[in-house]
Design a protein that fits this description.
The protein is mostly helical and 58 residues long. The protein contains three helices and no strands. The longest helix has 31 residues. The model has no long low-confidence stretch (mean pLDDT 96).
């Protein structure tokens, strides 16, 4: 369950950059958001692989 907690806290940590980009037009925050979305994609893929491995074991 720690992977879920890590994922949840990661998404929550992005709120500031999302706000800076969408509400204030801060382009540097947009770059950070884009990088974070790539990191989120990779985290999601790792979880998918882990779930599939556990499912296949039993």
């Amino acid at each position: 369950m720690s992977k879920y907690a890590n994922l949840k806290s990661f998404v929550e940590s992005l709120e500031g950059d999302f706000s800076k980009f969408y509400d204030k037009g801060n382009k540097a925050a947009g770059t950070r958001v884009r990088k974070a979305m790539l990191d989120l994609k990779n985290m999601a893929q790792d979880i998918r692989v882990d779930v599939q491995n556990i499912k296949n074991q039993g």
